[in-house]
Write a structure and sequence with these properties.
With about 210 residues, this protein is mainly α. The chain contains 7 helices and no strands.
């Protein structure tokens, strides 16, 4: 199951490819793009904290694009390194947590806090299971929701909320309906992805009776 869609992915790369090419020509180091992505995430988290969901979603999407571009620049300029991969993965975890913390500060309802905690756990464990599997010599990329899906859905819902929040409130009688729905979705599907990876690794190790 593809939670993003091939056409969307093709269009997205058609948009960002020229940006990547220009950055490569400037000679910028991919690590710089990684750190810039973290800065954009901090800005996004602050907007979420303040309830400015459109701007929060926009800056979150920009931060996610930085995460795509740093890898591409590293490959194209042959600056890939083990430390670069480690740094990128580490900053990604900070980015994941910061976004959810911004949302947690804004929302006051206990059940939404629980959803956010579950979403954080699912996000971090999705990455951890892959890293741990690689330590066991297993390539584990299975699962419905990886980081690109999380960024796309959360950022998209926030932007939609900022643009049409009044409409959803009139229709469903709930503030920030798109964001809350996506938090439910991410909380459930990200943890389901962890379960998928556990079962995949178990099969690969031949431990199923």
């Amino acid at each position: 199951m593809d939670l993003i869609g091939k056409r969307f992915i093709q269009y997205y790369f058609k948009v960002i490819d020229p940006i990547g090419e220009r950055l490569i020509k400037t000679g910028v180091h991919p690590h710089i793009i990684t750190w810039i992505g973290l800065i954009f995430t901090l800005v996004a988290a602050n907007f979420f904290r303040l309830g400015s969901f459109f701007l929060g979603g926009l800056f979150m999407a920009i931060a996610g694009t930085c995460d795509v571009l740093d890898g591409r620049i590293a490959r194209e300029t042959r600056k890939m390194s083990k430390f670069g991969a480690f740094l990128d993965s580490t900053i990604d975890r900070y980015n994941d947590v910061l976004i959810f913390l911004g949302l947690m500060i804004y929302f006051t309802q206990l059940y939404i806090h629980v959803l956010i905690i579950l979403a954080i756990a699912g996000s971090l464990l999705t990455s951890y299971t892959r890293a741990r599997a690689e330590g066991l010599g297993i390539d584990c990329k299975v699962g419905l929701m990886q980081r690109p899906e999380r960024i796309t859905y959360v950022a998209g819902a926030a932007i939609l909320d900022g643009l049409l929040g009044w409409f959803f409130k009139a229709l469903f009688g709930m503030e920030h309906f798109p964001v809350i729905v996506i938090l439910w979705f991410v909380a459930i599907i990200s943890n389901f992805t962890v379960l998928q990876r556990i079962m995949f690794i178990k099969r690969k190790l031949g431990d199923i009776k």
